[in-house]
Amino acid sequence: MTTSDPEDRASWPLWTAPVAVLLGLILGSVGTIVVDLVGNAFGSSLSNPSPATNIAADVVFDLGFVVTALVLASVRGRPRLAQLGYRRVAPSLAIGSFVIAAIAYYGLSAVYQSLFALNGSDKLPSDLGVTHSTAALIGAAAFVCAIAPIAEELFFRGFLFGTLRELPIRIGSLDLGPWIAAVLVGILFGAAHLGSAPAEYLIPLGFLGFVLCLLRWRTGSLYPCMALHSANNALALGVVTLHWAAGPIVGLIVASWLTIAAVTGPLASRRPRLA
Questions:
Q1: Is residue 274 part of a domain?
Q2: Nearest Cα to 248, choosing from 115, 132, 137, 169?
Q3: Rounded to an integer, what distance in angstroms lies between the CA atom of residue 160 and that of residue 70?
Q4: In total, how many domains does the chain have?
């Protein structure tokens, strides 16, 4: 699974990883407060913000981490976008790795759910007003299924995992850096959902973060990661919250993938990862 391709290697120092987590939280939190205050000026309650305010606040919060990643990735000069995971990947490698990652994640999640009889649900969709109006549903779906996967994959898998996998930890010829990085980023990814997901769901979310790191490592690209992240969010929204049939859920997944491709596709490195 390891790669020696220099396009896959981060060039920024290890200290940027913990700084990124702290700075991202600060920027995101300050941005959220500003959005809430602006929303309040236009009639939204500070204690119970409107769906539009919540959607805007969540977008700004995620953008705080995007800005943090881009700034810290530039400490040693302008980074190549391929270093952040924006590179093409051979369809066979992308699809095969996507399928294996999905089977691993949903298989473990099914076992975990059967053992602990989970019955909670993510409160984020209701906070975003998915049942409030059609406009709120469209805005929430765009955020949950496209904007969040783009922003979170850039920060967690593109920057944070890209940085931490350079940890100089080896046992003989075995490089443990990527594995340790995947565990750390998975824990942080699960913890990032503490405010919206029930506590019992943080473990499978952490495992999703771990699997997405391995998917990024295997393919050298964020695109399969964004696709799986987006599909997972669309399934959660469509099945658990909205109780949609298969057709609309598939439509939501495809629409989200097309949106992600339109926004991030032009950033991809011209040289694809083949194997």
A1: no
A2: 137
A3: 11
A4: 1
